[in-house]
Amino acid sequence: MNKNILVLSLVVIIGQGVVAQSSAVEEIVVTATKTERTLQEVPVAVSVVTADTIEKANIVDLLDLKAVVPSLDSRQYQSTTNATFFIRGFGNGSNNPGVEPSVAVFVDGVYRSKIQGQISDLPMLERIEVLRGPQSTLFGKNASAGVVNIVTKKPSFEKFTSLKAEFGNYNSKKASIYTTGPMSDALAYSFSANVNTRDGQADNQTTGNPVGDRDRFGFRTELLYVPSDDLSVRITADYDEFDEICCIVGSTAYGAANQVLALMGGKVIPNDPYTKKAFYDFDPTSKGENAGLSVHIEKNFNNTTLESITSYRTSDNYEIQDIDFDAANVIAPSPISKELSGMTQEIRWYSEDNERVNWLLGGFYYQEDMDFNESVYFGPMWRPYIDAFLPGALAGVAAAFGLPNSSLFAAGQGNTETSAQDNSTMSLFAQVDIQVSEKLNALLGVSYIEDEKAVSYNQINTAV
To answer: Is 0.70 surpassed by the pTM of this model?
Structure first.
């Protein structure tokens, strides 16, 4: 599948006394347009969450951001990795593994394609920028609803260490360490690690175990090499893992299917979407690992800057769910696994704060390989469940084909799906900012996106 996209954008900004009032407004530097500019100068609908706000609001991961960012919504579905972001009500679901979300997430300029690579606890942050509305000109095909841009603190040449420990209800325990300092006159380092555990906030009434717990660990290390005033190289390596029992699912509409399940041992509480009681045959689990390496090079010339960001990331996720969501053993445990590996390369060349005209040229390449496996098999109550809706129908089919009645829809039958997807994306973009007058700016952008996906799919079905 090939897709070529050409994006044009034009923004006109009319200022009213901005210079006269700027002294009364806190100056916040952002990279919403992929160059450092103050928040007052950026012609984009952007919300900035500073490190101080993140600390005071006890924001641990990206899903917590909705508490402090207007128009940003994060939604958790039936497992740890089934979550997604919405901006201004726009977004897409996460149950299709081949579909990228329409809210793009970047960490220090590196794209995170799937939610399973975004759920780790946040490292030492400088700020988080949430860009509202289509951002495809500069950020590519997966930013039609907006962008969440995470900027972490660079290693410092001044020694600094921070230790934190928190305790809360549900036996919540959080601990983190961050340390940074110089290794030489031109080399600085930073290291951070975090642990986040919590007992479940709901209970599985069938097994007696808690559901909705948290068990996460991660670390991140960086080197910053500054051999001269006009050159810097930043190397980042990170790793995180999670192993959780998730999630609680309540009943919003209790119908005939639920009533049949109740006769077979189902115990879902009718019409109670906010219940804290789950009824699963077993405890649903979700576990995964994420790792990455990135190199960010910045070279300054006379009135221009050249930047290169190279990254390689892997992400593995395995989960097993009770997809009938009830105590009746209708569907057997259904495992899902998803393995991702991808690399990105971005190059940007832009002017430095010219008086009248500022410009930016750039290119972005993204390659990701995904392997996805899913199995669904019938449990011992599947045949009685179908017979309750269609009495005698399956027996009649078996007799018509001369098959044993017990062979249709039997326990252990089902299907296994195996699929792979190779995705490559290339984007070229340019932008020019023209100051027409003291009160009028025009921002013109253009981008060309070429996207290609190759998909293979195989299904083995043992159901008679």
So the answer is: yes
